[in-house]
Amino acid sequence: MTAASTSPPTHGPALILGTLGVVAAFSVLASVMLGSVPLSPGEVRAVFLGQGSDLARMLILELRLPRTLAAFATGGLLAVAGALMQVLLRNPLADPYVLGISGGAAVGALLAMISGLGLAWVSGSAFAGALLSTLIVFGLAHGTGSWTPTRLLLTGVVVAAGWGAVITFLLAVRPSPELPGMLYWLMGDLAHARGNALPWLTLFVTIGLALPLGRSLNILARGPLQAAVLGVPVRRLEWTVYLLAALVTAVAVTTAGTIGFVGLIIPHMLRLVIGNDQRLLLPASALAGGVLLTLADTLARTIIAPEQLPVGVITAMLGVPVFLFLLYRSRT
Amino acid sequence: MSTTLLTLEDLVIDIPGRAAGMALDFPVLPGQCWGLLGPNGAGKTTLLHTLAGLRRPRAGRVLLDGKGLQNVPRRRIAQRLGLVFQDHYDGFPSTVLETALIGRHPFLRAWNMESAADHDLARRALTQMDLEALAGRQVQTLSGGERQRLALATLLTQDPPLWLLDEPTNHLDLHHQVAVLDLVRREVGARRRGAVLALHDLNLAVIYCTHLVLMYPDGGMCWGPTDAIFHVQALERLFQQKLAVVDSPEGLWIRPVPGA
Amino acid sequence: MTGGAGGSGWAPVPADARARRRCVAGPALALWLCLPFAPAGASAQDIVAIDDRDRSVQLAKPAQRIVSLAPHLTELLFAVGAGDRIVATVAHADFPAAAREIPRIGTATQLDLERLLAARPDLVIAWDSGNPRSPLERLERLGLTVYYSEPSDFAGIADDLRRLGRLTGSDDLAERTAQDFEDAINALRVRYSERPPVTLFYQVWDRPLMTVNDTHLIGEAIRLCGGRNIFGDLEALVPRPGKETVLASDPEAIVSGGPGEDRQDWLEPWAKWTSLTAVRRDNLFFIPPSLIQRHTPRIARGTRMLCEALETARSRRGPEAPP
Prior knowledge:
The complex is a heterotrimer.
Chain A lengths: L12 H21 L7 H8 L5 H35 L12 H14 L4 H24 L6 H25 L5 H9 L10 H13 L3 H7 L3 H6 L4 H23 L5 H13 L3 H25 L8 H20 L2
Helix pairs in contact in A: 1-3, 1-13, 3-8, 3-11, 3-12, 3-13, 4-5, 4-6, 4-11, 5-6, 5-11, 8-11, 9-13, 12-13, 12-14, 13-14
Chain B lengths: L5 E7 L11 E5 L4 E5 L6 H8 L7 E6 L2 E2 L5 H7 E4 L11 H6 L14 H13 L15 H15 L3 E5 L7 H17 L3 E5 L3 H7 L2 E5 L5 E5 H4 L2 H8 L3 E6 L2 E6 L4
Parallel strand pairs in B: 3-8, 3-9, 6-7, 7-8
Antiparallel strand pairs in B: 1-2, 1-4, 4-5, 9-10, 11-12
Helix pairs in contact in B: 4-5
Chain C lengths: L14 H23 L9 E4 L5 E4 L6 E3 L2 H9 L6 E3 L24 H6 L4 E5 L5 H9 L4 E4 L4 H14 L3 H22 L5 E6 L13 H8 L2 E3 L13 H7 L3 E4 L20 H4 L3 E3 L2 H4 L6 H17 L8
Helix pairs in contact in C: 5-6, 6-11
């Protein structure tokens, strides 16, 4: 073995996923136990055993648990979307929002709010906006010929900027009474996350659909020609991945607004440690993304309580040092 | 017919912006090693990509098992032929062994992980290419020659009946150039494989290829067994270069004649 | 730019949305009602008030633990004598001075629900257009009694005072406060609303430039003082005009708030436009934001300052002014 560079430590997949699973369990536990109102471990245990004071039950079962679950699922969705985007665009700098998905979702949500529609309509509208943006970008990038990742990226960036302008226009011209809430949503906020099963359902379905495509994705990451010659149905796979990533991002953004950084950093960090096998990277990203966002949200709502920090600030503050450390250690 | 590896049926390759050239029409049979000769831009890479089904021809068809390529499932094509590209693009970090292993993809079902047998095949391929010591290395750190050998190892792991090689001797030192071509000749001969190679080196082409295709820059084509095709004037016209032929005990030897 | 001194615009809630919310809120409240009072149903002693979303808010007895989710709502509660029963409020609740001692549970737009619940309120006073909807809906689902306040005119403020007084069991004090407020406003109306109109530009914020239209509370104050808001008939509640439009309209007076209670920073930039009528006659007036931009009884003071300012502007008209 030459001294220059060795392969990433290839521990067994079971060990990696097992470790991440344990960390995930701990992060969920921590998130439920911590909050702006201190509860002793005994009180927490009592609640899970069916007893506990009314206040403790309300805090844990009605506030913290739904929020924790929403945070974990959203973090997982964003990380998986980021991993898929990075493979699709063959670019480690891609993140879930690079193709204008969050902008479309925001415009949809904003239009619904301005029309005075209820919260369910706002979520649905955000979702529709995200998917519409996906179709616009994909359609425009296709143009008269086949699209390349560069073309897709450029189109996405431009469309995202276009959405940004529309948002600013709407905010300026019709400042809705919902404005403060909307601004926080644009920054990413789990306080507004409605506790439903959609994020979890999406996460499981996505992993289930993406895992069998894992090896094909590994090869697709090496270039479309190489993949095609090894029997990978490139065009169909690219469409599938794109729509999957868009769907996942749309659900994440609809749940908790546009939380940045998770989708970019988590797949990257994991790649430095476990390599780029998508069959391992995707489920690991889901777990690690969930952990990051859960911890970040816990900190966001407790550090300077009763003030609440935007969770996107915390994800950056947590993610950046860890990433830099791993990058430094890997020296690739 | 059942053993034909690939058939070119009135095939005209498509080079954008250039008028249609001559049609190619011949089968590739096991035991044959076809050499593609021609100056840069003649369309050697285009032809190889067309034979692999990556590009549409301007006219004519490529037949695999009697059917046109576009009617054969991609997976089946990948089990019957493999292509080593001129340029290698790696994207994300990966190891040498992982890169060789992708050759097994056409034979694995979606849910299958690579088995121990697959790993063995890959390792054996690496050994044949003199790369077994680098199995754990990151591909980005390989030299040009090592990367080229790795691409060949991937093909060996895939082990299809028909090999398409785009300038396989690029970046290789002389020892490895000969080793690779020896390997090709061995596989083609002993294991009844077929091969189509794009080569720049005239002498190597003459030594190793059983058949040649001369691809002229104006689109003209000339093909057949090496002995029949091998004409100094044809080669001079092909490369726009004066040549001298030397007869030696080992065989014919072509030398370019330097200008004044 | 939240609550407090900033530009706070709100539009009246559309009726169908109110109906929708009533249908959601009704059953939840009915359930709440049934719990300890099942035998008699709504008894005659129940305290009932209709909030600004047309929902019926009911308490068995006067509220003892109140959470207020906006600075001006805290002020209103103190005005009806219920200030000592506020157990938690949000940031920037600074009037009266005692309000600063009340524990905080976040800001009007970012609520700390855990601390809110831990405060065990029996009544939550919410600001319909200022608080985020989702957390409040969650509170309602958890069984809390929420009263949505959204006064949009002077009558609404007086009404809010009365209703809050009813809910907190200080009907008499609330009635007196409301009456005093209405009397003060009426006195101003009688005295000033028929006076020769003064065109004016009211500046809510400087960057971006923001003003109000006629349906805004401040718009009503302007009308009451016999003023004519040059941007009154614009559609938006809080329009953002360009500076050119202001210059072209050449208002007779410019009234503004400021970044603080005593900083006239926003008036100074206008002074250099010496061709403006308002500048030539020195009709640049400052009104401390908390006296006119919060929906509380103190708006009577701010309105009086506005009326007096306009009266001053009238006095500075030359002999060519219309009678």
